[in-house]
Amino acid sequence: MSAGRDFRTAELVLGAGARLAAESARFAGLGWMRGTSGNLSEVVSRDPLRLAVTASGLDKGELTAADVSVVGPSGETVPVEGVEPRRPSAEAGLHARVAALTGAGAVVHVHTVNAVVAGHHWPAGVPLRDIEMLKGIGRLAHDDEVVVPVIANSQDMAELGDRFEEAHDAAVPAVIVARHGLYAWGRDLTHARHVTECVEWLLAYAVAVR
Ligand SMILES: [Zn+2]
């Protein structure tokens, strides 16, 4: 989605909300969004940048299409006529930074144990190579050195965004936030889900064999 002011239509936003709710339920089912943690977003307009993002403080296994809000480049709420305002996730600002910098169409943020443990063991980045699953994130199964960046956590999304911008590798569609969780992204929500599943698998493997 890109054109002009499309994001202002409730239909488009609620459509994104329905997709985000369905994906959230999948991730919650995997145990990757414990409590009310984690959040997902989909770009609904590129210029100006607008993202539909899951609402804050709700069980991610029980979201409805209406549990969505639209945010701008700093994670600020943008009202949309016909959509009941919901409080966006506090982390919406980082979603927007990821989408702006990488061109991703969707961003997934989950709190998986493997991401946090891997970030603990490899604070300078998690090295991966010679493993078939790397093909799932667009890399090679052999002789391809991949490092998943790790950045320090912060409650300040602008600061976290700066750390992300500094650490991010255009050829690696994920970043670990230390003692916090994982961000991964793709061209659309389905692709972002596949990337997230593959990265999580790779991190579980790295932790298991170290
Ligand atoms: Zn989080």
TrEMBL record:
UniProt-recorded Gene Ontology molecular function terms: methylthioribulose 1-phosphate dehydratase activity
Keywords: Amino-acid biosynthesis, Lyase, Metal-binding, Methionine biosynthesis, Zinc
Pfam families (UniProt xref): Aldolase_II
Signal peptide (UniProt feature, chain positions): none
Domain Class II aldolase/adducin N-terminal positions: 18-207
Physiological role: Catalyzes the dehydration of methylthioribulose-1-phosphate (MTRu-1-P) into 2,3-diketo-5-methylthiopentyl-1-phosphate (DK-MTP-1-P).
Residue sites binding Zn(2+) per the record: 109, 111
Protein name: Methylthioribulose-1-phosphate dehydratase
Cofactor requirement: Zn(2+)
Pathway: Amino-acid biosynthesis; L-methionine biosynthesis via salvage pathway; L-methionine from S-methyl-5-thio-alpha-D-ribose 1-phosphate: step 2/6
Enzyme class per UniProt: lyase
Organism per entry: Streptosporangium jomthongense
Superkingdom per UniProt: Bacteria
Record-annotated membrane-spanning stretches: none
Keyword Metal-binding applies: yes
InterPro entries attached to this UniProt entry: Aldolase_II/adducin_N (IPR001303), Aldolase_II/adducin_N_sf (IPR036409), MethylthioRu-1-P_deHdtase_MtnB (IPR017714)
Cofactor note: Binds 1 zinc ion per subunit.
Family per similarity comment: Belongs to the aldolase class II family. MtnB subfamily.
Documented EC number(s): 4.2.1.109
